[in-house]
């Protein structure tokens, strides 16, 4: 198992410090703020630990309120909103320095039968035919920069469409959609909550990139900055985060310094397992124009 995946699993293993109160931490690396996918994943862990295992999560809705401080722990308080016959509702607040930085509402449901249909899986090359992250990033940032970036990622991510940094150098590559194969870099135990929490983490890694990709921008291009504002996910079917998943993403709108992106996650067999929506802050400065400086996060 890759060291970065071990570290992520450790981050998701929250410490319970009181009934319905959990404590999490951030990676020991220098960042201006906590990665949004980490907070969302940890909050879902906190919610899920207060719900019976026979009620899997089917949706979550979250707001990023304040930047998270990576140097201090995050305290997650769980409000048991409702325990019904079929549905369970939880509300989670992440607190730092005495203030809420993030809120999440999650709904869990017993497994039931009903009418079934889904959107078709878009065509995409098989993940094995695509270059890995190191191969794709080395021409852009050199071997050392690419290795450092890939080493920090707990996921094997392979792009079937242009990278934002490629489109920033060549505007002809700009496109409003993105196709990304991803899976964790290692084998996982059979724990459904763990798999959905890992996908929650991963869903924030490339989604807003689609907004930038449509405009030839990139995080780290010295003129683009942004942050996640809100995030919603619907979990349709069970899946494994250590199997290849196709993350199809597009952007229906951008304006007012905000960009909207949506995603659909498919298994290799074509099952739609997750739907995602996110709005993010996207601000562009006319100063500091130039080629991308290196991989970055929002």
Structure description:
The chain has helices at residues 3-12, 36-48, 133-152, 164-169, 192-206, 209-213; strands spanning 15-18, 21-24, 57-64, 74-83, 87-96, 99-109, 155-159, 177-184, 224-235, 245-255, 258-267, 272-284. With 298 residues, the chain is of the alpha+beta class. Strand 5 and strand 6 (99-109) form a beta hairpin. The longest helix has 20 residues, at 133-152. The chain is globular.
Please provide a brief summary of the model.
The model is unreliable at 289-298 (pLDDT under 50). The protein is built from 6 helices and 12 strands. The chain has helices spanning 3-12, 36-48, 133-152, 164-169, 192-206, 209-213, and strands at residues 15-18, 21-24, 57-64, 74-83, 87-96, 99-109, 155-159, 177-184, 224-235, 245-255, 258-267, 272-284.
Give the class from helix and strand content and strand pairing.
alpha+beta
Low-confidence stretches: 289-298
| End-to-end CA span | 27 Å
Shape: globular
Strand order in the sheet with the most strands: 1-2-4-5-6-3-9-12-11-10-8-7
Give a short account of the largest sheet.
12 strands, antiparallel
Count of DSSP E strands? 12
Order of helices and strands: HEEHEEEEHEHEHHEEEE
The portion of residues forming beta strands comes to: 35-45%
Helix content range: 10-25%
Give the integer mean of the pLDDT values: 93
* Gyration radius, rounded: 19 Å
Number of helices: 6
